[in-house]
Amino acid sequence: MTTPVQRPMTAAFFVQAALSFALALVSVAVGIAWLPVDSWQRGFLALGLVFLVSSTFTLAKCVRDRQESQEVTHRVDQARIDKILSEHDPFDLKQP
User: Fold this and answer.
1) What is the extent of the structural domain holding 25?
2) Within a domain: 96
3) Are 32 and 42 in contact (CB under 8 A)?
4) How far apart are the C-alpha atoms of 78 and 71, rounded to whole Å?
5) Residue 28 dihedral angles phi and psi, to the nearest 5°
6) Does residue 94 sit within a domain?
7) What is the pLDDT along the chain (96 residues), one digit of tens a residue?
8) 55 within domain boundaries
9) Domain annotation covers residue 21
10) How many folded domains does the chain comprise?
11) Buried b (16+ CB within 10 A) or exposed e, 55-82
12) Is the pTM above the cut of 0.70?
């Protein structure tokens, strides 16, 4: 059985990505807070910001899941599982 290849991610890259996301989120939130508009307009923009952030995380997860499902090791493991399931007879009492 082959083990999946782990792609290394440096700590500096992770910190840079987290800090850039935090800086962008805070700057947009401050921009919305200081915008000279009514409170309902500010609330609408804040709600849009929350929706944008949540959909960004969902999109990132979908892209990651698609990439993982297309890896060769995953497809080989899935083929093995499919073979085992197709050969298994739940009504055969002789199998352990």
Assistant:
1) 11-87
2) no
3) yes
4) 11
5) -70, -40
6) no
7) 455 566 777 899 889 999 999 999 999 999 999 999 999 999 999 999 999 999 999 999 998 888 877 777 777 887 888 888 888 877 777 765
8) yes
9) yes
10) 1
11) eeeeeeeeeeeeeeeeeeeeeeeeeeee
12) no
